[in-house]
Amino acid sequence: MSSASGSGGRKVLNKNQKFKRDKLRNARNIRTQAVSYDKNNHDLSKEGGSLLNVNNFVNTRAFEIKQLYSSMHQSRRSNATRVFQSLPRKLRRRTASHNIARIPKRMRNRAKREMNKNNNNNEKVNNISGGLTIAAKKRSKKSLNAKQFYRAKMSIKLLRLFTKTKNLKMLSGPKELTLRNITTRQKIKHFKDILKNKLPSSSTAIACNNQMGSYDNTAVDSLATKTYSRIKYLKRQKHFKWLSTHIWHAKRSHLIKRWGYQIPYSPTQKCYKLTHRIGSSVASSDGNLLQDTSFIGNMIIQNESSTDELSDLIASLTNKKGNKKVYRVHQCYFEGLLYNIDNENSISNAILGPADLLWINENKVLLRLHPSFYEVVFKAILKKVKLNKNFKVYDCRYSIGSINLCGAKTLSSLSSILRTVKNEGKESSSYQTFTKLSKLTDYSILPKQTLFAFRALDPRFVITPKAVTPNNGEINIADICKLNEINKDEVKAILEMLSDPETRKESYKNQATLKQLHKRKEAQSSGEASTNQNIIMFKRDYDPLIPVVIAKRPKTGDWVLLLPWNWVLPFWYQLHKVSKSYHIGLRQNQLLHFESQSLYFPDDYPFTKIGFKENYFYKRDAAMKKWESKPSSHRLNYDKIKEIHDLDLPAIQGEVGDYFSCDWLFLQILINSITYLSKDGNDLISINSSKTMSMNEHCGLRELRSVNDIMEFYNDIKVKPIEEDTPILSLHNIKNKSKNKLNPILFDKLSPQLSIIKTPLPVTPISCILNEKGHPTDNARIYQIPSEHLEHWKSVAKGVYRSNGRRNHELNHPKPNVKDLIGFVTSGTFSLSQGKGVGNGFVHSNYIYNSTHDYVLIRNVGTNVYRVSQWKLINI
Amino acid sequence: MVRLKSRYILFEILYPNMDESEHFEDNFSMKNILLRHNKVTPEEITNRVIIQDIRRSLQLNFGDYGSGKASSLLQLKYFSNMTSTGILRCHREDIDLILSALMLIKKLDNRIPIIFNPVKISGTMKKIEQFAIRRSHKLMTLMQKDTSVSMNIFKDVTVDDNND
C-alpha cells in the first residue's frame, strides 16, 4: 500500500517488469534511416525538403521495407511464446514444456534456451537419460530392501535369459511363463536348460525363425491361446488381449476394453470433421483413414474332400447367401448377416451379427467375425463338423491381422509402402494392376469384386514411402473390366499362401529388427553411391516375402488389408509415414456408418443378442449413471414432462418407456396389444372409465381392454427381468413392399397376454432425414402421423412461410397419441453429409407395409416437440 | 474488460511544388512527379515537431474539447525523414478529428509548406506495416521503370490502391 503512494498514481514497476516493458518497446520500435547530411552538398537538408535522385529514392524505400519487415517479425517474436506453442496440434505434447525430447529436433536449441531462461537458479536443466528435463524435486533416496533388491535382480536375470533364448531363435511357449505356481528360480532354471540343450524343452515350446520373436499362432479345431510377443507385458493382457499396435495406440488413442481385446476407441486428437471430410465422401477426401481391425477374428474352414459339405455349412451360416457362385467361384468379398447354427443352446437361425466372408478356393473359406460372437460361432461350427473328419477349422485370430483403410488416397498410400520383387523373371501381374490403379481416387468405378494379392517386401525396406509411378501406361476402362480375370490365378495362389500356417511362418523368416535394418542401411549408404538410398536392397533367399491381400469391401466401400499377424505393426508404422494418413477408432467407424446411413454393429443391431445387450445394459447403464450423478436440480425430470401426447393417460407419467434406452419391450407390448385389441375390427378405446382392473385367471396377468390397460400391463411386466432366450425383436427385411406380408399373430384364446409378450416384434431399419430444424438424438421416439394430421404435417414438411419470406417455425402442431408410437432411433444426430438432422432406427414392419407416404414424426427423449421427417429403407 | 480500440494511420508528407525555379514541364513522367513530391524531410523535423504541429492544428480548429479528446492517445509510432512516411496512432472514435486536423496543416514548423496525405487507415499495426511494404514495393517498381508516362493518362497517376 505504501509503495504506490509515492509514485503519483503511476504504477511502480519492479526490475523484471521494467525489463519486460523495455524489451517490448524495443521490439516494437521501427528503425529509421538517418538523413545523410553531406557537408559539401547541402541539398538534402535544404529548407522545404530536398529532392532525391532515383537511386536514392529506391534505396530509401528498400531500407524502409526491410525495417518494416523486421519490425513485424520482432514484435511477433517478443511475445511470451515458447517454441512448442508454435507447433501444429498434431505435434504438441503435454510434456513438451519441460522435456525437450518431445520437441522436434530443429527446435530443440531454442527450447533449451527458453527452458533455462524460465527456470530459476535452483532448478537447472539436467540431462537425464538422453533427454533434457527439469530435475525432479528432491526425490527421497530410498534404497531397495533386501527382498525388493533380490526380486529386481531376478527379474533382470529372467529378462536377460529370455532375450538370449529369443536370439537363439527359440521361444519357450507362453504356458511355462504364465503358470503361477512356478517360482522365478524355476523359470530361470527352465531357460538355462533350454540354453544348455539348445533345444526346445517341452512340446509347447515354439521354434522361432527370427529375432523379432514372431511366430504363427494358429490352432486347429480348438480355440487358440493368446499370443505374447513380449514377456514384459504378459500379465496385463490376461483378460484383454492387446493388438499388435497397442503401444502405438496407447499414446494416441483412448482405448476401451471390450470383447476380450483392448480396442482403440477414438483418437485423442479431435477428428470429427476430419473423419467426415476424408472418410465419407470422395470429392472432399484428400487422405486416408486407417484402423487396425486385427480384433476382428479370422477363421478358416477347410474341407479337402467335398466342396458341397462346406458350401452347405456356409449356406446355413449365412442363410443361403454366402455360398452363391459369385462368392464361391468368382471370389467376391461377401458382407452379410451371420445366423446361429447351434440348435441346442439358443434359438436357431437367430441373427448373430454382420460378418465378412472370402472364399480362398472351393474347399476353403475365410470367415471374418466380430469378436463378440467369434467364440460362439467357432464352437457351433466345431460341434457341427465334429463327426466329419474331412473338416478342419483353423482359429486364425492371432495369426491373420488386418488393417481397414478408407478415403481417396487409400490405394496411393498403400502403393507407396508396398514393393515386390520379380519372381522367376516375372513381375506380379496383380501388383502391376494395383500400381496402375493406385492413382485412382474414386473407387466406385471399380468393379464390386476388386482383389489384389501379391507377395510384398518388408515395408520398412522403403525408408521414405513414395508412391510408385506405374510404367505401364494409362488406366482404361477395359483394364478395369477384366481386372479380376487377368490376375485370377495369382490371387488364388496368394490367398492360399495367406491361409496356410506354414507359409505364414515362412513369411516371418529372418524378419528384421530395427537394428538390423539400420545396419543394412548404413552399410548400403557407405558402399556404392549409385544405389537407391531410399530402398534397402532385397537379399534373395534371405529376406522374407509377405503374402498380402487387399480387398475392396463392396457394401461399405472401404478397403481391407489382410496380412500375417506379426507384420501388422511394420505395415502400420510405414502407413503412418505417408502424409495425410490418420488413424481412427471404433467411434469414427460408427460415425462413417451413420453418415452413409447404414447400420453399425452392435449399436444399430437391436434384433441381435449382442446389439440388444448393448442397448439395454451397457449404454443404458452408462446414460443412467450419468443422469443419476447430477444433482436433482440439474437433471431432467422425465416423470414430469407435460403435454407429450394429445391425450394424457392416467397410467403414464411423463416420458413413455425407458428414459435411457430404446425400450423395445414397451414397443412390443404396445403394438402386439393394439393388434390384439383391434383384431376383430373393434375400435381402440383409450381409457375405459367404467370398468375396474381385473386379472386373467389363466396366467395371472392383467386383462386388456384399453390403451391405458396396455400401459398398466407394461408397468407390470417391466419390473420382471428380461428373459434372454425369448427375443423381443425380429428383423424383417423389406425389399419389395408388395411382395411379402407379415404373418398375423395367433393369439392364445385363454391368455392372450402371454402371446403378446412371447411374440417377437418384426422391425425394419429406416433412416430418417429431418425436414425442418432440429436433430434427433439416440433413443428418440418415432411416431406415425395420425391420418387426420397428415395434411398439416405435409405442409410443414414443404415449409410454411411468413409474409417476409422466412420459414415459420412457431406453428402449433397437433400431437399424436401414445398408440401412434412405431419405433425408436438407435443412432441420431446432425449429419454433416446431409446437412440436416438424421436418425437411423427401427420401426414396426407393418407400418412400412401400410404406409402411403414417407413421413414420420420424431420426438427426442424428454421433450414434447415433434419434428417431421422423411424416411427411407435401409438395406441390410 | 473493455479493450482500448485504436486506429493507425499511414501518412506521407508531400511537398507541393512551390519552387518555380525547377522546371519539369517538358517531362511529365510518373517518375518525375513522384520525385518532385516525395522529398526528404529536413533533419530538424523530428517526431516531436510533427506531433506538436498536429496538436496545434487540433487546438486551432477544434478547440480545447477537440484537442483534449483527440490528443489523449495520439502517438507517432514511426516517422522516416528519408521517405517522409509515418504511422500515427489515435483513438478509434477520434479518427475523423485527426484526419481533418492533418488536412488543415499547411506548414510544418510554421515554415515548410507541405501536404499531409493519409494513405491508409487500419486497426492493427501489422496490417499498416504490410500495406506500407506493398506500397513501397509499388513505388520502387514505378521508379525503376524508365518509360515516361504521359500526364494525360489518369489511371497511371494513382499509385494508392487504398480500396481494400
From TrEMBL, chain A:
GO cellular component term of the entry, any: nucleolar ribonuclease P complex
Domain POPLD: start-end pairs: 558-664
Residue ranges of domain Pop1 N-terminal in the record: 57-303
Protein name: Pop1 N-terminal domain-containing protein
Stretches the record annotates as Disordered: 1-20
Segments forming domain POP1 C-terminal: 818-873
Molecular function per GO: ribonuclease MRP activity; ribonuclease P activity; RNA binding
GO biological process: intronic box C/D snoRNA processing; maturation of 5.8S rRNA; nuclear-transcribed mRNA catabolic process, RNase MRP-dependent; tRNA 5'-leader removal
Gene transcribed to yield this protein: TPHA0O01880
InterPro entries: GcvT/YgfZ_C, Pop1, POP1_C, Pop1_N, POPLD_dom
Keywords recorded for this protein, A-Z: Nucleus, tRNA processing
Location(s) in or outside the cell: Nucleus
Keyword Nucleus: yes
Automatic annotation (TrEMBL), chain B:
Compartment(s) where it occurs, according to its Swiss-Prot or TrEMBL record: Nucleus
Alphabetical keyword list: Hydrolase, Nucleus, tRNA processing
Gene Ontology terms: biological process: endonucleolytic cleavage in ITS1 to separate SSU-rRNA from 5.8S rRNA and LSU-rRNA from tricistronic rRNA transcript (SSU-rRNA, 5.8S rRNA, LSU-rRNA); intronic box C/D snoRNA processing; nuclear-transcribed mRNA catabolic process, RNase MRP-dependent; tRNA 5'-leader removal
Major subcellular site: nucleus
GO MF annotation list: ribonuclease MRP activity; ribonuclease P activity; ribonuclease P RNA binding
Entries under SUPFAM superfamilies matching the protein: Rnp2-like
GO cellular component term, pick one: ribonuclease MRP complex
EC number(s) on file: 3.1.26.5
Reactions the enzyme catalyzes: Endonucleolytic cleavage of RNA, removing 5'-extranucleotides from tRNA precursor
Pfam families from the UniProt entry: RNase_P_Rpp14
InterPro entries referenced in this protein's UniProt entry, alphabetically: Pop5/Rpp14/Rnp2-like (IPR002759), RNase_P/MRP_POP5 (IPR016819), Rnp2-like_sf (IPR038085)
Family that this chain belongs to: Belongs to the eukaryotic/archaeal RNase P protein component 2 family.
Function noted in UniProt: Component of ribonuclease P, a protein complex that generates mature tRNA molecules by cleaving their 5'-ends. Also a component of RNase MRP, which cleaves pre-rRNA sequences.
Protein name, per record: Ribonuclease P/MRP protein subunit POP5
Annotated source species: Tetrapisispora phaffii (strain ATCC 24235 / CBS 4417 / NBRC 1672 / NRRL Y-8282 / UCD 70-5)
